[in-house]
Amino acid sequence: MRPAHFALAALVAAVWGVNFVVIEIGLDHFPPLLFSALRFLVAALPAVFFVGRPKVAWKWIVGVGLALGVAKFGLLFTGMSLGAPAGLSSLVLQVQAVFTALFAFLALGERPGRIKLLGMGVALAGIGVAAVDEGASGASFTGFALIVAAAVCWGVSNVLTRKAAPPDALNFMVWVSTVPVLPLLALSLLLEGPERDLAALRGLDWTGAGVIVYVAWITTVFGFGAWGWLLRRHPASSVAPFSLLVPVFGMTSAALFLGEGVGPLRWCAAALLVGGVALASVNLGARRAPETAGARSPEPRNVPAPVSARVSAPAPVSAPAPAPSSS
């Protein structure tokens, strides 16, 4: 990988990591479901008019839009609004790699090898340590649980993206962004109330507008576009490891800009989660599902899958890692 491409991959990881701090700021201006709806609305418009027609079937766009946009981001933003810290959220969300491996086994017959299973166990141990740290800090366990649920939904969207096999990550992400807008707006009106939504929109200031621009254009359009560009030019095994930098940037920026403390338990959870995700992302020991008699094995496809968010930007098994959590 050229130095410029190396720097671009690190920049994307930094953009996605800092995004958790930006979300925290945005939640001071918007209710979480309305905030998520605005993020996808601005990401889709006007980009949808410039990326061309969808290059995969609509069933995959709708499926990923609901799993990733409505479920994953709705739960993530709500969990953070209930008190899940930005730095911890950037870390815990990476357990999506474990859920991706599990759902890939159940839905696609991709059997994880021993190293992957070990990595999944280590990552789950990291979630346990993070939960203990969350309880010890007196923060909201409900918010923490919603972050884990968001990781589950991200795993579902990763498997759907594998099935979709989009040839153009940016085109796919922009069209996916059109799907969650109306469902999220409807949920916001129902659960957060029209009065609260109108108050947030009437009180929109430069900070609120800047937050929307960052999470929509910088994180989504630039982040996923650059990540897909890198995956088209380099092996996934060269690009995917940069996803492990997302929680590093997330925790560091949260400590610098939000004053979040990082105690021994948090560092222990980070080591277990990042190490476990790294092990769960390797390709050693992966086995394909048994082929039917007389059938030819399909050629492996090097398919970039998003999300990431992503971290993002980001990492499923037996395939190029999706972008890790862009949040």
Question: Could you give a quick summary of the protein structure above?
Answer:
This protein is mostly helical.
End-to-end separation in angstroms reads 26 Å
Count of helices? 14
- Element string (H = helix, E = strand): HHHHHHHHHHHHHH
What percent strand?
under 5%
Given as residue ranges, the uncertain stretches (5+ residues, pLDDT < 50) are: 284-320
Which structural class is indicated by helix and strand composition?
A: mainly alpha
- Proportion in helices: 55-70%
Q: How would a textbook summarize the main sheet?
A: none
Indicate the mean pLDDT.
Answer: 82
Rough outline: globular
- The quaternary structure here is single chain
- Taking all Cα atoms into account, the compactness measure Rg is 19 Å
Number of strands: 0
